[in-house]
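Problem: given the chain below (441 residues), write out its structure.
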Amino acid sequence: MDCRVEIPRDFDCQVVLPVSKSIAARALIINALMPVVCNHDLFNSFKTKEEGVGSENDSSECTSFLVEQQSITPQCDDIDILTKALNSDRNLINVGDSGAAMRFLTAFYACREGRAVTLDGSERLRQRPVGPLVDALRLMGASIDYLGNEGYPPFKISGKRLNGGSVSIKGDVSSQFVSALLMIAPVAGGMTMTLEGEVMSRPYIDMTMAVMRHYGVDARWKKSGNKSQIIVPPGHYIMKPLAIEGDWSAASYWFALKALLPQSRIVLSPLCNNSLQGDKAIVEMMAPLGVNARFDGNNTVVLFSDNSSLVPTHYERDMAATPDLVPTLAVTLCLMRVPFSLTGVRNLRIKESDRLEALREELSKLGYSLEVGDNILSYNGNHVEPQGEIIIDPHGDHRIAMAMSLAATRHKIIIKDAKVVTKSYPGWWEALRAVNRDRKS
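Solution.
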């Protein structure tokens, strides 16, 4: 499906965001690890704010919120894949493009005694490494055999009782490897995990630990010399209601639209001020570009423009903690012609696409020339106006598709393979169509 994207110069919209797929995925795995599980389709039992945990004023850690059942319909592909896999009794499970499902299910099935499965995925997923996770699981006693290239899917898992103990893993690999191991640690007898080197995407690890604590397992950080450790005690998760906040990654595209179209009025919900999600950092990222956020009641955020702020002459930021925001920020800065240097981006090469090359290639079609280094993405501010309507290829990547759709504020574009957004934000195109209906008179 191709999509011709049109965005009016100004509009007035109220947006209900999808729930955080990152929190939902962790909740699904943890609920499936409980001693007694009635239904892996967790979305049938998610509670509203009033029935959930804590309150808005809980400053110890974020209380997650879900305002209405319709805000999770339709579910994104990642959550749908996980739900179906956890309900399946098949021996072959194909997770498509879902890297999170592949990593979380690898650890999950490794500790399911007597359960044998083969995990596989799309051609792109077969190119995304899982070696560090499998190596760590094997040291815990897991039985995992590769069926193709060493270190990559597909592979066969024969579930066994695992022994957690002491586990070491590099901190600069995927945070999903770390999260996958942490979630199974209590049922594997507890774990002391040592993260070697720089810890990448730490907010996602903190999110995992917060969800674990909600379900009764007190996972904590510990400093050991110059190394970071996480201590997870042995035990079992306890079934409790959990309400899930709106997705800050999805919100980032609306923050970008406000930066690009400052006359528009944008109201977002449901968003938690004390969020578990690292991508709430979009609030501070967009502030230098003239976008401010006001948190009103009922988990609503109103975006407004700061007319006094000056567009920066050069924008610099380390993105290691929030790599999913790189496409949003890079496209926005290019469209505003703000030179930038974004560091901490190395891991973007092993996402759903090589996001660094995808951004460089697709933005070049629009006349923006990006430089890609080993761990840096940069732009010098120059621009050559393209001719006619430009066809954008999202490279099979939902975040490239949504970030590049922002270019419709400046250029005539068509997005190929537009359906890829269903991985995280199924309602994105309908939301943009609603923007056209709600344009200011």
